[in-house]
Write a structure and sequence with these properties.
Elements (H helix, E strand, L loop, with lengths): L1 H8 L4 H5 L1 H18 L3 H11 L4 H25 L2 H26 L13 H5 L3 H31 L3 H16 L1 H16 L6 H47 L1 H10 L11 H5 L5 H19 L5 H13 L4 H22 L21 H16 L13
Helix pairs in contact: 1-3, 3-5, 5-6, 5-8, 6-8, 8-9, 8-10, 9-11, 10-11, 11-14, 12-14, 14-17, 15-16, 16-17
Length: 394
């Protein structure tokens, strides 16, 4: 989830230079991904071999977490504060994070290596040493403080925003921050138990600590993306599906036009499947389809017969159609008759206009045109088959 979020936020790269909040959020996802990566035991071993010092992964993991904790308030600051206050908050948070990471580095290299350990067993192996107690306490205090600032900031921002999905996302982030307190409690419990001589937390408590840390982080990562999903990804997905549906519904009408006047197509699909579905650039292809259908109508204009229009209008009115629906249905009948007449090269006895010509003034955008053509296509697909063999003037 962290890696996916990072990759999505990095594209296009120019946005990061223009939006500091976005750049900070990308850093949150990046350092979150790094903290999990270096906590994997195979990666942990590679770091040990590369640096020549056991358990270097714990420093990388803790440093990554502190970095993301410093960046989370930066995101909120740029979302909720004026420019100058947000800048001051950014400088303070980043400076505080750098100081904590430097202090962790100094304490870590004062630890006496005790041989290879695992990410999950590192605390149990080292917690009896004073240096590690100071190291762990500093990290947990910074961790708890950072998550507290995040939780309070998110709940305050959620109360003041007017966007419901942003508020929901911020509340999820706040809940995730609170969940991580369970991790802090168990880790501090280790230190307190050693200092006071009390029994160490059980293995179940260790599992609970990791569950709180990972579960809280998952909620945090999810919460930051809820507004993006709700306000951008979901509408884009719906628009893509709607465009696919419209492209497919216009296919029979377009295929008939293309068969009669192949020159209307800018890029003809190689297969029938290609004329029914496009995965990439569907909005462009839908726009082209609408243009090509209109070009086909223009090419068939010399074959329109007035008697076809009159007969169709009478029949469609008797069926209860009025207004734009009537014009679309009559236009579909005219196209069918014109296609047949063009195959036979039959000139009309009384030329006519398309019935939908009277509704063109209402078409102001490409979307309007697509909707108008969809009405025509619906009637074209269900038109009586007997018309295909009839002369254009009947």
């Amino acid at each position: 989830m962290a890696v996916t979020g990072l990759l999505l936020l990095l594209w296009p790269p120019r946005r990061l230079a223009q939006d500091r909040a976005l750049a900070a959020l990308a850093g949150v996802y990046g350092f979150s991904a790094l903290s999990f990566l270096v906590s994997l035991e195979p990666v942990w071993k590679v770091l040990d071999e590369t640096t020549g010092r056991p358990s270097t992964g714990i420093l990388a993991a803790f440093g990554s977490v502190v970095a993301l904790l410093a960046l989370q308030p930066v995101v909120l600051a740029h979302w909720t504060l004026p420019g100058e206050r947000a800048r001051r908050r950014t400088v303070f948070c980043l400076a505080a994070g750098a100081v904590v990471i430097a202090a962790l580095g100094v304490l870590f290299f004062q630890l006496t290596p005790t041989g290879r350990s695992t990410p999950q067993g590192f605390t149990i192996n080292y917690v009896h040493t004073g240096t590690y107690q100071a190291y762990l306490t500093l990290y947990i205090v910074a961790y708890t403080l950072g998550e507290t600032v995040l939780a309070v900031g998110c709940w305050r921002a959620a109360r003041h925003t007017g966007e419901v999905w942003i508020a929901r996302g911020l509340r999820i982030v706040g809940v995730g921050a609170v969940v991580t307190f369970g991790y802090s409690a168990v880790r501090l419990g280790h230190v307190v138990a050693v200092l006071t001589g009390l029994p160490q937390p059980s293995a179940a408590a260790e599992k609970f600590a990791w569950l709180c840390a990972d579960g809280g982080t998952t909620l945090t990562l999810t919460g930051f993306f809820v507004p993006t999903l709700a306000l951008h990804a979901v509408p884009h997905a719906r628009a893509w599906l709607r465009a696919q549906r419209d492209y497919r519904r216009l296919a029979p009408l377009w295929e008939a036009m293309h068969g009669a006047v192949p020159g209307v197509a800018l890029n003809s699909p190689r297969t029938l499947k290609g004329s029914r579905m496009r995965v990439r650039a569907i909005t462009w292809h839908l726009y082209r389809r609408a243009v090509e259908i209109r070009d086909g109508q223009w090419a068939l204009q010399p074959f329109l017969e007035a008697s076809v229009r009159h007969a169709s209008e009478q029949r469609r009115r008797e069926a209860g159609l009025t207004g734009a629906d009537l014009a679309s249905a009559v236009t579909a009948d005219q196209i069918r008759a014109a296609l047949t007449a063009s195959k036979r090269d039959e000139a009309p006895q009384s030329p006519a206009e398309y019935a939908d010509a009277t509704t063109r003034e209402d078409v102001r955008t490409p979307d309007d045109d697509v909707q108008a053509l969809l009405r025509t296509a619906a009637h074209f697909e269900t038109a009586p088959a007997r018309q295909e063999n009839a002369p254009s003037w009947t």
